[in-house]
Design a protein that fits this description.
CATH superfamily: Gcn5-related N-acetyltransferase (GNAT)
Helix content: 10-25%
Radius of gyration: 16 Å
Largest sheet: 8 strands, mixed
Strand content: 25-35%
Order of helices and strands: HEEEHEHEEEHHEEE
Distance between the termini: 26 Å
Number of domains: 1
Shape: globular
Structural class: alpha+beta
CATH architecture: 3-Layer(aba) Sandwich
CATH class: Alpha Beta
Number of strands: 10
């Protein structure tokens, strides 16, 4: 476990692959990193989770995006950055035609995704060891992008307004087909997110009172 944790501080080869987008949230005051998330699609390569499991038939032949290494600081700012990153990757998936978001989480992180209405890919709350994550057991979950807004609406989800009914000009994933390029706009809160490498800059800001526990 300590060895695996230390490895997370280093870039991985897949961070630079064409299927990968890395979102970095940083302070505009001093450039301090506030949070990151990695998106990996199955356009050219299988997802990392597929190194350890065979996905069920309903995910076979679909365009998938795996969210990995979502990490933020502690406290209210960390929570705000996390929710903004979540909105950013949902927008990225929607604009690039990804059909399902896939995640693998350990407790208590898996409950955050359950609250976002991700569903279990295998058995109810079933944990499976993942080779690329030090063989530690994870809960594999998926989210259908096309039906997301309808399901959040039906559930009266506390983040529905933030995700779908509030325009944030600082969230701009800048996607045009398979290519991604845009320029960053100003961030009112002094916090921003940009995607690297060869990916859109996506600065993000959000009032704290709009956020609910994820």
């Amino acid at each position: 476990m300590p060895e695996f944790a230390r490895s997370l501080a280093l870039p991985e080869a897949c961070d630079y692959e064409e299927d990968t987008v890395v979102l970095l949230a940083e302070s505009r005051l001093d450039g301090t990193p506030l949070g990151t998330a990695r998106i990996r699609t199955n356009i050219h390569h299988p997802l990392h989770v597929e190194e350890s499991v065979v996905l069920p038939q309903w995910l076979q032949g679909r365009s998938l995006g795996e969210v990995e290494r979502l990490g933020v600081g502690e406290g209210r700012i960390g929570h705000m950055v996390k929710v903004a990153l979540v909105k950013a990757f949902f927008e990225y998936f929607e604009k690039t035609g990804i059909e399902y978001a896939v995640i693998a989480g350990r407790a208590p992180v898996d409950r955050h995704y359950e609250q976002l209405l991700f569903t279990d890919v295998f058995g109810d709350k079933e944990m499976v060891p993942l080779r690329h994550a030090g063989n530690m057991p994870h809960r594999v979950m998926a989210f259908e992008i096309a039906s997301g807004e309808a399901r959040w609406t039906a559930a009266k989800h506390p983040l529905l307004k933030f995700f779908r009914h509030t325009h944030h000009p600082d969230i701009d994933v800048g996607v045009a087909g398979a290519e991604a390029s845009t320029t960053a706009s100003d961030v009112n809160t002094g916090r921003g997110v940009q995607a690297t490498p060869a990916a859109p800059q996506a600065p993000i800001s959000a009032p704290l009172d709009q956020l609910a526990a994820a």
